[in-house]
Amino acid sequence: MQKTVPALAVLALPVLLAGCAVGPTAEEQAAMVADARKASGALIQKLGGELQGAIKEKGPDGAISVCKERAPQVAAEMSKQFNFDVKRVSPKNRNPAGVPDAWEAEAQAGLEKRLAAGEDPKTLDTWQIVDTPSGKMFRFAKALPTQPLCLTCHGDPATLPEPVKARLAADYPQDKATGYAPGMVRGIITIKRAL
Ligand code: HEC
Question: Domain map of the chain by residue range?
Fold first, then answer.
């Protein structure tokens, strides 16, 4: 009788531990990654399209409102649709709220290395299930490579159109998001979901 107690404990312990630390299954992880790719892809497509249209219609300074108002709106739509927390951040942020946290900064640095090693910028992303004080969290980052279109508002300050410069100076006095060249990672779309 005495022998069965430790035997039971040995059996029960791994089950209990697994119960505590249980995370999503491989299938659940794959589904979350697929959803994060869909959400970030939709954000890029929607914003890119609206940006191009607005530049044509209103000029680059008029298009600033697409980045300022529509980017957070579309990110909020994607958050709702996919049950994620979606936003854009950059180590050289323009929006004062766009500062990356430690995970995001590391993710972008890793993506920049992979880009430099020749990986296709279109599919450059990374993800991880991380432990936080309040439980596990799914985290995902997609690189936003700088395209020629982006330079109108993120390029060399000396070559920015005057009206853009004036508008940026008025709206973003702390702006760090200029000086980019094509192909550099402008920032990331960052996606989170508490599990
Ligand atoms: C018409 C001007 C304009 C163009 C063109 C533009 N941006 Fe922006 N971008 C902005 C403004 C303004 C903000 C700040 C938006 C805000 O207040 O959230 C911004 C913010 C961002 C951010 C969020 C992080 C931060 O710095 O605050 C990223 C990432 C970004 N832009 C990437 C791009 C990329 C990639 C392109 C090209 C596909 C692009 N932008 C084209 C004006 C522009």
Answer: 26-194
In the chain, DSSP assigns E strands to 85-89, 125-132, 135-145, 185-194
Decide: 89 and 187 in contact? Cβ < 8 Å.
yes
* Model pTM score: 0.89
The stretch 99-116 carries a mean pLDDT of: 98
In the block, tokens 């993710």 appear at 107
pLDDT for 22 equals: 75
Q: 175 phi and psi, to 5 degrees?
A: -55, 130
DSSP 165: H
Q: How far is the CA of 182 from the centre of ligand 1 (A)?
A: 14
Task: Report the topology of domain 26-194.
Answer: Beta-Lactamase (3.30.450)
Ligand 1 site, residue 100, Cβ cutoff 6 A: no
Per-residue model confidence as pLDDT tens digits over 68-90: 899 999 999 999 999 999 999 99
Contacts of 99 (CB under 8 A, 6+ apart): 89, 93
